[in-house]
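Input/output pair, single chain:
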Amino acid sequence: MPTVEIVALAVSRQHAFEGRPHDGPRPDPEPVARTEVEVRAGLGIVGDRYYGQAVHKNAAVTLIDAASLDEVVRVLGLQAPLDPHLTRRNITLRGFAIDDLAARRTPDGARIPGRRFTLGGITFQANRPANPCAWMDQVLAPGAMRALRGHGGIRATPLTSGTLRLGLADLTVHD
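Output:
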């Protein structure tokens, strides 16, 4: 059971990435950074824009590996680390390649489902990848969308409820 570090938690009541990226994101009415979040089974993160929305049931919580953001810095030759909150992923963790848990297709087209995992005592079902969009070039750095391809995180459904906090947490992959 690896220990990972939850380095950022984000909750946003509204969708900031609407319209055209060159127009810039809509400002948040309140800061998105949190020190802890309350996760509810089948619903998502309390207070987040996707909480309890049936259409987003399989994408209620998004996670990204901080190493993916480090790689963007390296590939693009940036001088400073990136703020993980700008990705709008709910949970940023360090110490585990979270993208490996997403559902995917084999070369012959067969679907392999995402894996179940427990993070900080809360069990999730990994679903599809959280593919980066053109907004990443606007909010992180030009070229960030391309640099994040294949490791932009995952979308997941919480299967149990609990509280996640910044800091160290156990991560167990179940299947």
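The longest helix spans residues 66-76. The two ends are 13 Å apart (CA to CA).
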